[in-house]
Amino acid sequence: EIVLTQSPGTLSLSPGERATLSCRASQRISSNSLAWYQQKPGQAPSLLIYGASSRATGIPDRFSGSGSGTDFSLTISRLEPEDFAVYYCQQYGSLIVFGQGTRLEIK
Amino acid sequence: QVQLVESGGGVVQPGRSLRLSCEASGFPFRSYGIHWVRQAPGKGLEWVAVIAYDGSYRYFGDSVKGRLTISRDNSQNTVYLQMNSLRLEDTAVYYCAKSLLRGVSPWDAFDMWGQGTMVTVSS
Hints:
The complex is a heterodimer.
Chain A: E1 4-7, E2 10-13, E3 19-25, E4 34-39, E5 46-50, E6 54-55, E7 63-68, E8 71-76, E9 86-91, E10 97-98, E11 102-106
Parallel strand pairs in A: 2-11
Antiparallel strand pairs in A: 1-3, 3-8, 4-5, 4-9, 5-6, 7-8, 9-10, 9-11
Chain B: E1 3-7, E2 10-12, E3 18-25, E4 34-39, E5 45-51, E6 58-60, E7 68-73, E8 78-83, E9 92-99, E10 110-113, E11 117-121
Parallel strand pairs in B: 2-11
Antiparallel strand pairs in B: 1-3, 3-8, 4-5, 4-9, 5-6, 7-8, 9-10, 9-11
């Protein structure tokens, strides 16, 4: 089973700064079947990115995904106050596995 | 309104059973696979199960295999998760989620989630 490791565990930044979150897989993920989700307290997760780099419907273009094989990243170009949340990567190339999450907090 | 609504959660003793429901509206339900994902208090996301759009396949995570079953009634736009032999470690919020794409593959991203239903296993 593929294991996803997200880093850092917690990222402290200020609004307006750029955020880069990492997701590393223990094995190559087929067809770049990698998604990113945002979860705010008390809410269900919501899809941001699928296919490693495709934005989901309604997602602002400050969110971008990149990577292939075993190394993937989510970049938020300029942080807005509503972006501070927990972010999960998910691989769906074979079975479904989530990373442990990165908490993005206000510095 | 496009949504998924879970129900059926509650407090149950170890070893007992519980059935969760996920009712869909606002999209062609019978064309999409539906997943269950859980989240223990203060923890991350764990995939639990999937059922194909037509019920032709069902897969489960290792931690629940043999104890949970999943079914769907496309006439009622509803998916069910039957949870048997519940354990303390099954305590979590259970979300149902819709596959992003129509089709046969069970493995997909999730573009719609319900609000979740809490299951607490406690003696």
